[in-house]
Specification:
Helix content: under 10%
Structural class: mainly beta
Distance between the termini: 50 Å
Largest sheet: 15 strands, parallel
Number of helices: 0
Mean pLDDT: 94
Strand content: over 45%
Radius of gyration: 19 Å
């Protein structure tokens, strides 16, 4: 049985291409920071009789998991994980993954990959990548076997700030069920989005659920507020896409840049109690043009 790992209010840093790797049973990060610059932060929580292969290429470390490997939980509370610069990466592999008032962030090229049984973000937790300069933002890829829940102001986000010329990353989320909750206020509404407010283009946003996507007072958006073009917004759910309780599914241009298109593919589309601030929207609020909804 792999031993559990707990770190409380500790700071770990790997600079100039180093790797921080926590590999064990249940992993608990309570406060503190894990930081890698031009390197990697890797967390793997596995059960007994598990075999993990390690691919070492210079300072880069890759995981290889056997098929059907048993997973344990990863809990991050009041903590932060940062990957900075274009060759950096954050990877989490585990069972139930829970973030409480915590941040996982890739800046100026850092990418994020999460593979879990269930993923829950609560109390303003954030998983995001942002570019501030000419470097392209990293992607966010999330693959969850069961459900993803975002609550109380939590978010997934890839963005380009106003001073940046680099492009934004893509957000790709795969799960059985995806739920984004809120009350249509900025403090309490969870969100998933990509945006650009600079010259660089924004990334694409894709939600893919084998059951349902539920935007219950939350926000799913692709936005441009600058000269850069916004990406496409794609939502696929085998059973239903539900937009309720002032929830919003939208693409918008708030500047001179144009947007991509919104594509929804589902068995049932429900839009209920969204007036006046929510609904399924394509908005042009300035000189930029917007795409279509199909």
């Amino acid at each position: 049985q792999p031993g559990n790992i707990t770190t409380t209010n500790n700071h770990f840093g790997a600079l100039s291409g180093g790797t921080i790797a926590l590999i064990g049973g249940e992993i608990n990060v309570d406060g503190g920071v894990l930081l890698s610059q031009n390197g990697q932060v890797k967390l793997a929580a596995v059960g007994e009789d598990s075999t993990i292969g390690l691919n070492v290429n210079s300072s880069s470390l890759g995981f290889q998991f056997s098929e059907g490997v048993e997973r344990e939980s990863i809990n991050i509370t009041n903590g932060a994980i940062f990957a900075v610069d274009e060759n950096s990466e954050i990877e989490l592999f585990g069972g139930d993954i829970y973030l409480n008032n915590s941040t996982i962030s890739g800046n100026n090229g850092g990418s994020i990959t999460i593979d879990g049984t269930e993923l829950n973000l609560d109390k303003n937790s954030r998983i995001l990548t942002v570019t501030f300069f000419a470097i392209n933002s990293g992607d966010i890829e999330i693959n969850v076997i069961d459900v993803i829940n975002l609550a109380i102001g939590s978010l997934f986000f890839c963005g380009v700030v106003s001073s940046a010329t680099g492009a934004g990353g893509d957000v790709t989320i795969n799960a059985k069920k995806i739920t984004i909750t809120g009350d249509a206020t900025p403090d309490n509404s969870s969100s998933i989005g990509t945006s650009t407010f600079g010259a660089g283009n924004g990334g694409n946003l894709t939600l893919d659920a084998t059951e349902s996507v539920n935007i219950n007072g939350g926000i799913v958006s692709v936005v441009t507020g600058g000269a850069g073009k916004a990406g496409n917004l794609t939502v696929r759910a085998t059973d239903a896409v539900n937009v309720t309780n002032k929830g919003s599914l939208n693409i918008s241009s708030q500047g001179s840049g144009s947007t991509g298109n919104m594509r929804i593919k589902t068995g049932t589309m429900r839009v209920k109690n969204t007036f006046p601030s929510g609904g399924v929207l394509v908005l042009a609020l300035s000189s930029g043009t917007v795409g279509s909804i199909t």
